[in-house]
Structures are given as structure tokens and as C-alpha cells.
Amino acid sequence: MYWDQAEGAVRCEWGEAGVRHLGPQADAVVIVDVLSFSTCVDVALGRGAGVLPFRWRDGRAAAFAAARGARLASPTRRFTGGPSLSPTSLLALEAGERLVLPSPNGGTLCALAEELRPGHVYAACLRNAAAVAAHLRAHYGWGHGGRGHGGRVLVVPAGERWPAGTLRPALEDWLGAGAVIAALGAPGSPEAQAAAQAFRDAQGRLPEVVGGCSSGRELQARGFGADVALAAQVNVSLCVPRLQTGEFRPVH
Prior knowledge:
The protein has about 250 residues and is of the alpha/beta class. The protein has ten helices and eleven strands. The protein has helices spanning about 15-20, 35-45, 60-65, 105-115, 130-140, 170-185, 190-200, 205-210, 215-220, 225-230; strands spanning about 10, 30, 50-55, 70, 100, 120-125, 155, 160, 165-170, 240-245, 245-250. A six-stranded mixed beta sheet has the order 1-7-2-6-10-11, with helices on both faces. A three-stranded parallel beta sheet has the order 3-5-4, with helices on both faces. A hairpin with a 5-residue loop joins β8 and β9. α1 runs parallel beside α4, α5 (about 130-140) crosses α6 (about 170-185) and α9 packs antiparallel against α10 (about 225-230). The relative contact order is 0.22.
């Protein structure tokens, strides 16, 4: 399997195909969806809430939320006066709330990864990259005072979708994945090393880069510049979101 990146303890591959093909060989899987899902998870957990990712945006989401006694977030960024896929809308969440977050991108990847590696799925973004990396070092260790067996970590930039539904690699997710990999300091595949170097190159001007990339420009044009600014913050959060039995909770 030439594409398995077996030469690196840290691997990096895009989207659903990356999870399916490289996830079974990983000890931990990290999903990175910077301009929506992963940043939403970090913000919500930072407020003391829990997040239940869900793949579909139709009526199944409401039934899922009702069955679990959770609040359903709007599956779009449109202003509804309540929580949605807009990270800034989650700043008003209260501690103890449980939020179902429908996301056909990040939520789908998390659900798939949990099927393959239950209990070992994490959500990372630029805001919490160093915190997630510190936890991974400690539990899947390659030195740095860590314990463990030198495990294999797969970091998955989620990407976006073209109108036809095919994957569109997204710069912000590549940089978010690179931020985690750079902070890990572990031997990485060439793909992982390239992502880490991309982050290092952009590190001093991330608000400009994230705001100027395709996804950032789209969101700003739609009136969601505050989401872009919040998502472009680097290492401002100590939250490490881990998915267990279908719900993200912070690692303590």
C-alpha cells in the first residue's frame, strides 16, 4: 500500500477517503474543519457544553436530538437567534447544555472515524492545535515526557465541497492540520511534514491568510467575518475535544 504513509508516525490525508483508508491503521484520528465544525466544537466545549455530531441536516437531526434530550443547532449559518454552524453563535451556550450539531462534512468524518477507532477520535482547529498535540504526545507518546508506545496519529483536513459534491481541498484545513502536526514534534510522513511547513510559513500572518483564502472570502462576503476572525486565532484554547459514544467532551 504505497499510499498508507507507513514511514511516518504522524500521517496526513484529506477527507472521507483519508479516514477510510488510513484510519484503520491509526491509533488516534484528528479531524480538522477550521471554518466550521472543529471550531464550533472547541467553542462549545469551552463554554461547558457537549457536542453530538450528526451527519444529516434533514428531519433525522431533530429526531436524534429529541431522543437524546439535546438541543438541535441550525444546520446552516443563517441567523436564527440560537446556536448554528456559525462558531460565534455558540458563544452564548451555557454550561451543561448538550448540542446536536448537524454537519455533512466534519460531523460525517467524526462519525466515520468513531466507527473505526472508537474512543480515539479528536477535533482540532487552529484555536486548540497545541493543546490537542500535547494530549496526543502524552497518550500516544514519542518522548517530550510522554508515555505510551509511539503510536500512529492520522490528522485529517476535512476540506470543502465543490457544487458537484467532490472534495475541494481547503487551505484553512491544511493549515489547521499543519498546526497540530508542527506542535506534535513527532516523525511524520512527507505529507504530514508538508502540512506542518505550510503552517510555519503562514504562522505570523494567519488572520490575513485565512481571511484571504477562498473559504474565508466567501464567509466574509456572506456576513460572517466574525467567524473567520475567531477561527483564525491560534492556540488560545486549552480544550481537547474527544469523541466518546457519539458525544464530544473535553479531556481532563
